[in-house]
Amino acid sequence: MTEIPARRRARRKDARPGEILDAALKVFAVKGFAATKLDAVAAAAGIGKGTIYLYFKTKEELFRAVVRQRLLPNLDEIERAVAADTGSAADQLRMIVGRIAHMVAETELAVLPKLVLAESGNFPGLARFYAEEVVNRGVGIITGVIRRGVASGEFRPVEPLAVLPVLGGPLMMLVLWKHALAPYTNFAFDPRLVIETHLDILLRGLAADRAP
What are the residues whose beta carbons fall under 8 Å from the beta carbon of 116, sequence distance 6 or more? Predict the structure, then answer.
């Protein structure tokens, strides 16, 4: 039997946590949180069940790691982009929602809020964790942009927190549709078209009245 070089084994070991997280996200998307077993995640990652415990002791710890290492980097990027952008508040909202739309349409990350909503009653600790790590940061980013638009006169005077559900509602609907009802219908939404339409309507409503 050919022996695997030590350097290659080290690289494989270094990559294993990321492979486990990717497998966990896929299994969570299919089974939900409550029904997911660590041995199913291990099988999806191509490792033995015992190996997964070297990295994650519980399913809750694994879920938190998925959020922190797969979802939160996207929030980090959005925060940096907003801080570096000197354009209009409307353009910043387009950028933020565009990035969220990409996650909804192209990745499994959008299943995470759906899992939290569906299972928060049985797992309140996970809901609390998600609210603190993800929701509060996202709310701060978006309301900050809206507040800046109001202060500059670009947006009409509005309460930023009141706008937030109006902005996020269609995004959450697309998440729930993709991961709950879409397989049982004979039609499909184009997420990008839905979001472009929604943003056009929302930004027209936010625009400050201009004197003729």
Answer: 126, 127, 130
**Domains parsed from the chain with CATH numbers:** 1-57 (1.10.10.60), 68-206 (1.10.357.10)
Q: Which two structure tokens, joined as six digits, stand for 8?
A: 């290659």
The pLDDT, as a whole number, for residue 12 is: 56
Question: What DSSP state is assigned to residue 53?
Answer: T
Phi, psi for residue 114 in degrees, rounded to 5: -65, -40
Matching residue, tokens 């209009």: 88
Q: Which residue ranges of the chain lie beneath pLDDT 50?
A: 1-2, 4, 6-11, 211-212
- Give the H or E element holding residue 170: helix 160-176
How far, CA to CA in Å, does 15 sit from each of 11, 147, 180?
6, 42, 32
Q: Are the C-beta atoms of residues 199 and 167 closer than 8 Å to each other?
A: no
Rounded CA gap, 97 and 94, in Å? 5
